[in-house]
Amino acid sequence: MSLVINQLSKQIDHRTTLNQISFTIEPGQIVGVVGRNGVGKTTLFRTINGQYLADSGDVSIDGQVIATKPQLRTQLCFIDPLANFFKGATIKQIQWYYQTAYPNFNNAKFEQLLNRYHLTSKQKLRHFSKGTFGLFTIILSVATEAPYLFLDEPLDGLDVLIRKNILGILIDEVATGERSIVIASHNLVELEGVIDRALMLKNGQIVNDYQLETMRSNARKVQLVYRDKQIPAVVKQLGRIVHVSGRVIVVVFEDFNATVQAKLAATKPVFQEELPLSLADLFMANLTDEADFELLS
Ligand SMILES: Nc1ncnc2c1ncn2[C@@H]1O[C@H](COP(=O)(O)OP(=O)(O)OP(=O)(O)O)[C@@H](O)[C@H]1O
């Protein structure tokens, strides 16, 4: 069962925010939708989930277009963090509402997670801190048992402990291979160790679709030391220099194959060592536009 976003377009205030966006989400994936502030991540989620009407294009599950089969909406869950209409409600009232909307709502899971994080059914959302609200949103989303969850900046501004709790819940949820989670974020680094795939949103389009496992297996981060301070031209051509300190340089090679290794050996470094590669390193090697570096901060 896959979710297909097909040529989705949306104008807001006569500005094209989404321009014929297409991608497919397979079960068991955690996918990051990454882009700078204001690029249209929330608009994309709202349009996929039906809060905004698409100007053109459609969203389908297993070939069935959701707009023509409203019952398919229960396969998707997006709790808009800016929607304030539940703020005066108690957890119990929200549970009742979601049970009605989602036929497979899992009360046992919902209550077990509430207990685990010391939340009680009489609490009102408006009394929650930002972090508790974030955690509650995740608990509610996973309890819907919708196969496709959309989370908008779920980790933004949260402390380390709450982040860890949220990530633990999300990773458990995809472990069965049946659910998929799509996370919007303006910060790639906070998605380290979480996402399997990253879609980069820019100028209304998905400009890159990265499979991180493939990227990781092809890329290498290498520390090199040369006799003099001159960096060989071939190193600059083949890799992206991420750090220079005296005669020590650190380079990320996006596609580190035998040819690259041979060309590197020919530069005769006095020292060469492979370093652990982070998500930020991978993207440093790929983000060609200086303006995109904000995504790593
Ligand atoms: N309901 C609306 N009314 C007017 N403008 C809107 C509305 N929704 C989105 N926009 C505009 O569309 C553009 C994309 O906004 P959106 O919130 O989708 O971006 P984003 O990538 O989620 O940003 P952020 O990372 O800051 O949350 C922005 O210019 C925003 O001002």
UniProtKB/TrEMBL annotation:
The keyword ATP-binding applies. Coiled coil: none annotated. Residues 3-228 form the ABC transporter domain. Keywords: ATP-binding, Nucleotide-binding. Gene3D superfamilies: P-loop containing nucleotide triphosphate hydrolases (3.40.50.300). GO terms for molecular function: ATP binding; ATP hydrolysis activity. This is ABC transporter ATP-binding protein. It comes from Lactiplantibacillus paraplantarum.
